[in-house]
Predict the 3D structure of the following.
Amino acid sequence: MAGYFRDEGIVLKSRDYQETDQLLTILTPRHGKLDAIVKGVRKPKSSLRSGTQQLCRSRFLFYAGKSLATITQCEVQSIYAPLRQDLKRLAYAFYLVEIADSAVMPGQVNPAMYILLKQGLEILAGAPPVLVARAFEARVLKILGLEPRLDRCASCGGDLDGGGRPALSPAAGGILCARCRGREGPEYQVMLGSIKAWQQLNRMNWQHLRRMHLTPNLTRELEEILPAFLEYYLDRKLKSRALINEIGGSENDGTGKDRPATRTPGD
Ligand SMILES: [Zn+2]
């Protein structure tokens, strides 16, 4: 498809290209994930500079060349300023961006993932980052058709609270009861409270995330099992998790602290 086309998009990645250009990876609602060159953007006076930085949402005019597309105009919609002013929120923003980048193949059109990333970045400005990340992961799994079975054992269909600790098994596509554990692949022992919180994250409206409270134990466990499940199916390690851990991860963000914690059996 040669010629001009318009779309909005979120810049997932940008790297220097040739002398003064940059090569961007952009997630768009209508044209999927695409690579595009911004010519001359590293010159001081380039008008394309502000809207083409990583983590910007802009309206673009692209020209589809023989190989790569070129960005000929762009109008910035949001630079997500509140995220750039807070190192922790910024680290989480890069995490959401990395997940979206890993979940959509080049050229693949996935409007649901675009909308999810856009909403996730907006909510991240005001809600506890650790909860936004968990809700985002849960929704990505849904969009990819990988939502795990959480209400019953994924293998025998039995009750999960029938005695013994259940475990999350990515290979089995859900939670295994104590009797079915240990048959294939990695497993992560889970508290019933974590399973309930995960179900809640699946159902919950984004706007209500601010009111969700988790105990530190549940927060830590979900922080391990949700990314593990996602990484198993994306078949890669999510690198931004290291940055989040470096700057303190889920600690000190108020979730489950200074507030009455929701306690559930098994916690
Ligand atoms: Zn079972």
Residues 216-234 form the longest helix (19 residues).
